[in-house]
Amino acid sequence: MTIQGLCATIGRGTATPEQVAEFNRLCSGFSAELGLRFTSLSAEYVEAEMKVTSRHLQPDGVVHGGVYCAIAETVGSVAGLLAAPGRVVVGINNSTDFIAPMKTGVLTARCEPIQLGGRTQLFLITMLHEGRAVARTNLRTMVLRPVA
């Protein structure tokens, strides 16, 4: 099973705890390097969390802005795969606002669809620390060909 295949299986429904665990097992590459762990996968929203470590920080000790952008792109792309089962989805615009600094703890990202079209999708990703927004992203994705 691949991530794309699992997302196509979940489709526009809600993942079971077993499917979420399998999704996390399949995650590799950059999201694994970040330490991102998905906690909810559904058509209504996707959530993931990451424990902030020293490798995520700028020299002045706060989370690097690129970390927020990478998390948003990852979580939003997964939401895009769920919204377009069996299709390739790629990010085409990522606009992230940094709201408050964060130094340590668990960062939670919640992605909700704003617009789901046949060719493009728009998602709002809010990143929270202890219930407080620290960053917010509008992510535009493009729906491409079927997964090979």
TrEMBL record:
<keyword id="KW-0378">Hydrolase</keyword>
<dbReference type="InterPro" id="IPR006683">
    <property type="entry name" value="Thioestr_dom"/>
</dbReference>
<protein>
    <submittedName>
        <fullName>PaaI family thioesterase</fullName>
    </submittedName>
</protein>
<dbReference type="Pfam" id="PF03061">
    <property type="entry name" value="4HBT"/>
</dbReference>
<feature type="domain" description="Thioesterase">
    <location>
        <begin position="61"/>
        <end position="132"/>
    </location>
</feature>
<comment type="similarity">
    <text>Belongs to the thioesterase PaaI family.</text>
</comment>
<dbReference type="InterPro" id="IPR029069">
    <property type="entry name" value="HotDog_dom_sf"/>
</dbReference>
<dbReference type="GO" id="GO:0061522">
    <property type="term" value="F:1,4-dihydroxy-2-naphthoyl-CoA thioesterase activity"/>
</dbReference>
<dbReference type="InterPro" id="IPR003736">
    <property type="entry name" value="PAAI_dom"/>
</dbReference>
<dbReference type="GO" id="GO:0005829">
    <property type="term" value="C:cytosol"/>
</dbReference>
